[in-house]
C-alpha cells in the first residue's frame, strides 16, 4: 500500500509523545524526516524514534522532494509562516491547534493552501474518534430530549514552568488557545452550527506575561442552546464534556485525551436509568492522519474542511475580546 510520507517540523513534545506514534500506528502514513533548528536535537530524536532523516533547519525539510505532508507542532505564532511556506512547496499541512493567532491569519493559510492545490487541516484529533459520531447520533435520536446546553472543561496546572511557550503573550500563549479551543470546537461540531455571541471572564496572570491562565465563558447558539466552558493552565486537571437534554444527559469523563482503554467510554443518563457506552480503544492521532491521507489520494473528502479552522478561530477571537473588554461580543 502507498504511504503518505510525513515530515515533522520541530521536536515539540506533542510530536514526540503523540503525533509521531500516531503516524506510525496509522494505516496510511510513514514518518520520513524530522527537522529542528538544532541539528543535534533532530538527530537525537530521529535516532530514538527510528526516523530516516534529520535536518538542522525547517527549510531543508520543506525542500525535500520525498516528503508529501508536513506536521507543524511549532509555537502558535509560527503556524502561519510555516504553513504557508510548506503549502507553497507543494506539501499538505496538518497544523497543531490553534491553527493560528486570529481567524484572519487562518484565512490567509487556507487561501494559500487552496491556491497551491494542497490540503490543510487543524489538528483536533479527538473528533476523529468514532465515539463522537455515536454521541451525535444519540443527541439527534431524541433519546435525551431537546438539547438544552453543553458544558465543557479542559484544565491543567503547570504555573511553575516559567520557560513554557504557553506563557508568552506574543507567541499565542494562554489557556483558550491551548485547551479552551477543544470545548469550543466540540460544541460547534455536536450542534452543527456556529455561535451567535460570546461572553467570557479571564484571569490574566502578571506572573505569566499576562496570558489568560484561566477563562470561563458562555457561548450562545441559536435554538436557545449555549455552551458553558472553562479552561485553565493553573487549575486541577479535567477534560470533560456534558450534553444536557430535556429528558437526559450524556457525560464524557475524558472528552479530549483518552490515555487508557476505559477512559474513552461515556455514560448516558435518561430518567432513573444509566448505561455506559463502550467505544473501541483507537489512536485518535492515527485516525487524524489517515483522514488527511485518504483525502490527499482522492479516496475520501476531508471530514473537517480547512475553513472549519477559520470558524473556530473566530470564536477564540471573540473569547479574548470579551475577556479583555469585559463585554458580550456578537459574532
Automatic annotation (TrEMBL):
Protein name (record): Inositol 2-dehydrogenase/D-chiro-inositol 3-dehydrogenase
Alphabetical list of InterPro entries matching this protein: Gfo/Idh/MocA-like_OxRdtase_N (IPR000683), Gfo/Idh/MocA_domain (IPR050984), GFO_IDH_MocA-like_dom (IPR055170), NAD(P)-bd_dom_sf (IPR036291)
Listed Pfam families: GFO_IDH_MocA, GFO_IDH_MocA_C3
Keyword annotations: Oxidoreductase
EC number assigned by the record: 1.1.1.369
Family, per entry: Belongs to the Gfo/Idh/MocA family.
Any one GO molecular-function label of the UniProt entry: oxidoreductase activity
This protein's record includes keyword Cytoplasm: no
Annotated ranges, domain GFO/IDH/MocA-like oxidoreductase: 132-251
PANTHER family given in the database record: OXIDOREDUCTASES, TRANS-1,2-DIHYDROBENZENE-1,2-DIOL DEHYDROGENASE
Domain Gfo/Idh/MocA-like oxidoreductase N-terminal, residue spans: 4-122
Encoding gene per record: iolG_23
Amino acid at each position: 500500500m502507498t504511504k503518505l510520507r510525513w515530515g515533522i517540523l520541530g521536536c515539540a513534545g506533542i510530536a514526540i509523545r503523540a503525533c509521531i506514534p500516531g503516524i506510525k500506528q496509522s494505516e496510511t502514513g510513514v514518518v520520513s524526516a524530522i527537522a529542528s533548528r538544532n541539528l543535534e536535537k533532530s538527530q537525537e530524536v530521529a535516532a530514538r524514534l527510528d526516523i530516516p532523516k534529520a535536518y538542522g533547519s525547517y527549510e531543508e525539510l520543506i525542500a525535500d522532494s520525498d516528503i508529501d505532508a508536513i506536521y507543524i507542532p511549532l509555537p502558535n505564532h509560527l503556524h502561519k509562516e510555516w504553513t504557508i511556506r510548506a503549502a507553497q512547496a507543494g506539501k499538505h499541512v496538518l497544523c497543531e491547534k490553534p491553527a493560528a493567532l486570529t481567524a484572519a491569519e487562518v484565512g490567509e493559510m487556507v487561501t494559500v493552501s487552496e491556491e497551491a492545490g494542497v490540503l490543510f487541516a487543524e489538528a483536533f484529533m479527538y473528533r476523529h474518534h468514532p465515539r463522537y459520531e455515536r454521541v451525535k447520533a444519540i443527541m439527534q435520536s431524541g433519546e435525551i430530549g431537546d438539547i438544552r446546553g453543553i458544558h465543557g472543561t479542559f484544565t491543567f496546572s503547570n504555573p511553575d514552568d516559567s520557560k513554557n511557550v504557553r506563557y508568552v503573550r506574543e507567541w499565542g500563549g494562554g489557556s483558550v488557545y491551548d485547551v479552551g479551543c477543544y470545548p469550543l470546537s466540540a460544541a460547534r461540531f455536536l450542534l452543527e452550527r456556529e455561535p451567535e455571541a460570546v461572553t467570557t471572564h479571564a484571569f490574566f496572570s502578571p506572573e505569566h506575561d499576562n496570558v489568560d491562565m484561566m477563562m470561563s465563558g458562555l457561548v450562545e447558539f441559536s435554538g436557545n442552546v449555549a455552551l458553558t466552558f472553562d479552561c485553565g493552565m493553573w487549575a486541577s486537571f479535567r477534560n470533560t464534556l456534558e450534553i444536557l437534554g430535556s429528558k437526559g444527559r450524556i457525560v464524557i469523563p475524558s472528552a479530549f485525551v483518552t490515555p487508557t482503554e476505559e477512559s474513552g467510554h461515556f455514560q448516558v443518563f435518561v430518567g432513573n436509568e444509566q448505561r455506559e457506552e463502550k467505544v473501541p480503544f483507537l489512536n485518535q492521532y492515527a485516525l487524524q492522519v489517515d483522514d488527511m491521507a485518504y483525502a490527499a489520494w482522492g479516496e475520501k473528502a476531508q471530514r473537517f474542511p480547512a475553513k472549519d479552522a477559520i470558524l473556530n478561530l473566530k470564536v477564540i477571537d471573540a473569547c479574548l475580546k470579551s475577556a479583555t473588554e469585559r463585554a458580550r461580543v456578537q459574532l
